[in-house]
Design brief:
12 helices; mainly alpha; about 200 residues; about 0% strand
Length: about 200
């Protein structure tokens, strides 16, 4: 377009940001966004949404949080997909405090509410940090909200209990998996074996 003397509008920039984000060309996302700002255009909701999806997918934590804060400072509301994209990123890179803030903001939002993906990410975050009380609270809230935990959620909880040396809770959670009719897979078996190797022999009976 520039070669033809045409000036890209906001829709063109948003489309480019989204396309580069989908292909994980995050360095180009940053470059295109800077071009957008330099052109004098004002980023809109779709612009910020594309940035969050791109940075979240690439696990650019600091950049994603900056965009989120800028977006909310302008009074723009996120939807479930954007919140969950950020929470999933936080779970992968260990942004605990940021995830708690995101969850609180999500709960106060009138346009969206936590869903099973939200709770799964939060439980993963707390489990990795061996925050047992917080992980159990998330699971309780998840069930009370009408969402049943899947095998990945329960694996995270088992790992948390294992790291906290709470063998009885590991057994209880495994029993819950069976009661829910979930068939243990290779990941579950590997998780249990890992917990067993960290458990004192006398506790294994």
């Amino acid at each position: 377009m520039k070669a033809l003397g045409l000036k890209p509008n906001l829709v063109c920039y948003n489309t480019l940001l989204d396309a580069m984000g989908r292909t994980k060309r995050t360095w180009q996302v940053k470059s295109i966004y800077q071009q957008l700002l330099s052109s004098g255009l004002t980023p809109g909701w779709a612009t910020y949404a594309s940035l969050i999806r791109a940075y979240g997918k690439a696990r650019y934590g600091d950049d994603a949080i900056i965009v989120y804060k800028e977006m909310t400072a302008k009074g723009m509301n996120l939807n479930n997909v954007l919140y969950n994209t950020l929470l999933s990123m936080c779970a992968d890179i260990g942004f605990v405090d940021e995830a708690v803030e995101l969850l609180d903001d999500m709960k106060s939002c009138t346009d969206c509410k936590p869903d099973s993906w939200t709770y799964s990410s939060m439980l993963t975050i707390f489990s990795c940090c061996v925050k047992v009380v917080e992980a159990e609270a998330v699971l309780k809230e998840m069930v009370e909200s009408g969402f049943q935990p899947n095998i990945y959620v329960l694996i995270s909880l088992i790992q948390c209990y294992g790291k906290a040396d709470r063998t009885d809770d590991v057994v209880t959670t495994f029993d819950r998996i069976i009661e829910l009719g979930i068939t243990p897979d290779k990941r579950m078996c590997g998780c249990l074996l890992n917990v067993m190797t960290q458990t004192p022999r006398e506790e294994l009976g």
